[in-house]
């Protein structure tokens, strides 16, 4: 019984550490089927929060085989994706619905600069 | 837009085709009629239509991660229903359990996998200049998916019934494990599971962005860059039902006795 309690507590701790940990925040915007900025610098070996705003009238899917992430972002909406921790390198991403124009790259290096979240426009919920 | 539509349809359509082929084969081996499929198609259409209506609202839940939360629950549900389906036998479990689990798997896989494509479709439907290429892309994508499905179905039927039964069950379990890895991806993306670096990168062998990559990802949950958590949960999800199967086979009296009680 005690062992079970210890195991459940460990699982809850692991879960809560992942949920409540503060993550550095980076902002990405989609406008006219392009990503702004097209290059994002994030610190290495750290999990970061990527806040994506879609200012277009059509949906877009953030997709990256390098980052192992995909997510649909609805028109005039905001979405969140967590990425990392990653070793130094370049990790490309693209808009699945407009792969020829919506392209970008996450550059993982020693930088500690964190983009400030933009003021949410009236067009984005 | 044409190539894009084909790629999206392959990504979202192949899991549905594989699930359908494996379930049809499994239910045929267990001598069930196609009644379950008719009910499953009707329920799946209703669930998908309701999801499409409310998807924008759902996307807003949980700080913009509502879809991931809902889909991860769906993917985990598919795995558990597949395990139930594999262990449901007419002589030891209620007769309705096998068709009911098949219906559950069908409804979950169809609704979760079609919704992204429907969002894409409805998002661009109003742009008439793109309509022709989207329609041609859909035709090509559906054609490829159906061809792959028919080929897999007849390959499964080629073997002797006992071998076919074994291969079908293993493929169904691997498919379930693949669905479970999709849930892990989503939970990692939501920061609900601790993230780790990938253990290896096998994209030089099979790239996830290639035709073969789509095939293996849909069928067995192939991941070119898995983390240790992925591998641990995948192996656990695969071995536990197999271990239970062999344990039950070696202790038929215990399970039958308990079930009769």
**What's the β-strand tally of chain B?**
0
Task: Report the β-strand fraction of chain B as a percent range.
Answer: under 5%
- Total helices of chain A: the number is 1
Instruction: Classify the helix fraction of chain B into a percent range.
Output: over 70%
Describe this structure in words.
The complex is a heterodimer of chains A (125) and B (261). Chain A is an alpha+beta fold. Chain A has a domain at 23-109: Immunoglobulin-like (Sandwich). Helices cover 15% and strands 42% of the residues of chain A. In chain A, the strands form two sheets. A five-stranded mixed beta sheet of chain A has the order 3-9-8-5-6, with no helix packed on it. In chain A, strands 2-1-4-7 form a four-stranded mixed beta sheet, with no helix packed on it. With 261 residues, chain B is mainly α. Chain B has a single domain, classed as Growth Hormone, Chain: A, CATH 1.20.1250. In chain B, 80% of the residues lie in helices and 0% in strands. Chain B has helices at 2-29, 35-64, 66-87, 97-124, 128-158, 161-189, 211-220, 228-250, 252-260. In chain B, α1 runs parallel beside α5 (128-158). The relative contact order of chain B is 0.15. The chains are: A alpha+beta (125), B mainly alpha (261). The A-B interface holds A 14-15, 17-19, 21, 23, 47, 49, 58-59, 61, 65, 68-69, 71-72, 74-75, 77-82, 84-87, 96-97, 99, 125 and B 4, 8, 55-56, 59-60, 63-65, 67-68, 116, 119-120, 123-124, 127, 185, 188-198, 203, 207-209, 223-225.
């Amino acid at each position: 019984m005690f062992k079970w309690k210890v195991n459940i507590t460990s699982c809850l701790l692991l879960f809560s550490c992942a949920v409540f940990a503060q993550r550095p925040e980076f902002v990405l915007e989609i406008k006219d089927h392009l990503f702004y900025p097209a290059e994002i610098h994030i610190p290495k070996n750290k999990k970061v929060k990527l806040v994506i705003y879609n200012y277009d009238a059509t949906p877009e899917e953030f997709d990256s085989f390098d980052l192992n992430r995909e997510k649909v972002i609805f028109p005039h909406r905001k979405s969140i994706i967590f990425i990392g921790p990653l070793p130094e390198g370049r990790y490309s991403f693209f808009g699945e619905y407009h792969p020829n124009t919506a392209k970008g790259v996450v550059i993982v290096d020693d930088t500690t600069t964190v983009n400030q979240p933009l003021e949410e426009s009236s067009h984005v919920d | 837009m044409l190539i894009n539509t084909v790629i999206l349809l392959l990504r979202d359509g192949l899991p549905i085709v594989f699930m359908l082929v494996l379930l049809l084969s499994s239910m045929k081996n267990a001598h069930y009629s196609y009644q379950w499929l008719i009910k499953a198609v009707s329920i799946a259409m209703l669930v998908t239509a309701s999801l499409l209506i409310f998807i924008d609202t759902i996307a807003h839940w949980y700080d913009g991660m509502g879809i991931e939360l809902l889909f991860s629950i769906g993917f985990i549900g598919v795995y558990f229903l597949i395990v139930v389906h594999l262990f449901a036998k007419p002589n030891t479990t209620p007769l309705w359990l096998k068709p009911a689990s098949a219906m559950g798997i069908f409804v979950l896989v169809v609704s979760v996998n079609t919704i992204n494509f429907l969002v894409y479709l409805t998002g661009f439907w109003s742009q008439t200049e793109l309509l022709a290429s989207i329609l041609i892309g859909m035709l090509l994508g559906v054609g490829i998916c159906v061809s792959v499905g028919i080929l897999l179905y007849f390959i499964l039927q080629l073997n002797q019934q006992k071998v076919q039964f074994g291969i079908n069950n293993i493929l169904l379990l691997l498919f379930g494990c693949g669905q479970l890895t999709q849930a892990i991806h989503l939970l990692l993306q939501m920061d609900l599971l601790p993230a780790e670096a990938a253990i290896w990168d096998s994209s030089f062998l099979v790239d996830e962005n290639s035709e073969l990559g789509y095939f293996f990802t849909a069928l067995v949950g192939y991941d070119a860059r898995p983390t240790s958590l992925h591998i641990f949960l995948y192996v656990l999800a695969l071995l536990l039902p197999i271990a239970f199967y062999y344990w039950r086979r070696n202790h038929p009296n215990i399970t039958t006795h308990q079930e009769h009680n």
